[in-house]
Specification:
single chain; mainly alpha; 14 helices; 60% helix; 0% strand
């Protein structure tokens, strides 16, 4: 799943993080203030091309097309896209064809979810629901892979910032709801695994204040209380997310359906939600998010 993905990507440009807080330095110039800004369109376009190249590199693991691999390396180098990769990513990309492990292939396969979000932000793709995995081949086909790409980078534009923020909120809420269900199942399957957890205790106190009958749940044991509390929280998140007038109606997920999912599907949803949330965070915070 995406939670085990290697850190293939590093910041493309450094972000200014130095400078005293505004309250302690009121006369500080804007140039010295901390910078936390979304990446520029050309930076997003360059990253999208690098992700596409990485996915193509993964495909070449099966075809062993040395000529295309050499051409791909030259294309990435010519456009200066290697700056989007961290050291592990560069080493993986340039390694001998056929040398990737199954874990490497799976890790890169999950970057198709990031490419989907980048392509959507650039106005090149529609946005499927959480229930549909990104179509890597289809996304790559829309990009000028191995062709002239300067205009794709230089002429890139992004969707409005408020639209990106709205979708980030959707991704984060869905990820939280899914994680809560995953945690609930872990406890349900092995009640003995439940250990003192400050975060869980805080969550149970929070949902109790919102109407969860914690006392009744606790009467059946701490594991039952935890499971029911987590699912109450997940249900509350989804109800609020898709309340009347929600801009996310097309992405609606019913809490009962989430609970009924088989393990493999739930794991896939978790991976998709995680990958898309990470991508949206980078789109809105850029290097600052990756540094943190």
């Amino acid at each position: 799943m995406a939670t085990s993905r290697k850190p293939l990507f590093d910041p493309d440009e450094k972000t200014a993080t130095e400078g005293k807080p505004a309250e302690s330095a009121p006369e500080e110039s804007d140039a010295d203030a901390p910078l936390t800004a979304p990446p520029e369109p050309d930076v997003v376009a360059g990253r999208a091309l690098m992700v596409a190249a990485l996915l193509e590199r993964a495909r070449l693991e099966s075809t062993r097309d040395e000529a295309r691999f050499t051409a791909l390396q030259a294309w990435v180098d010519e456009l200066g896209l290697f700056g989007n990769l961290g050291p592990d990513g560069v080493e993986l990309f340039e390694s001998k064809l056929g040398s990737w492990s199954d874990e490497d292939i799976e890790s890169v396969d999950w970057t198709s979810e990031e490419l989907l979000m980048l392509s959507w932000a650039l106005g090149k793709s529609d946005l499927p629901t959480l229930e549909a995995r990104a179509d890597a081949a289809g996304l790559v086909a829309k990009l000028p892979l191995l062709g002239p790409a300067e205009s794709f980078i230089d002429d890139a534009t992004l969707r409005p910032l408020d639209e990106l923020e709205v979708h980030r909120a959707l991704c984060e809420a869905l990820l939280e709801a899914i994680r809560s269900e995953v945690y609930a199942r872990t406890i349900q399957e092995d009640p003995a695994s439940l250990e003192p957890d400050e975060d869980l205790e805080e969550l149970l106190s929070s949902v109790a204040a919102e109407g969860f009958d914690r006392k009744a749940a606790a009467a059946k044991g701490p594991a039952h209380e935890a499971v029911q509390g987590l699912r109450y929280w997940s249900r509350t998140l989804l109800n609020e997310l898709f309340a009347s007038g929600s801009p996310h109606e097309a992405h609606r997920i019913d809490s009962a359906k989430l609970v009924s999912l088989d393990e493999a599907t739930l794991a896939t949803w978790l991976g998709v939600a995680h990958s898309r949330t990470e991508a949206m965070a980078w789109l809105l915070e850029g290097d600052e998010y990756e540094t943190e």
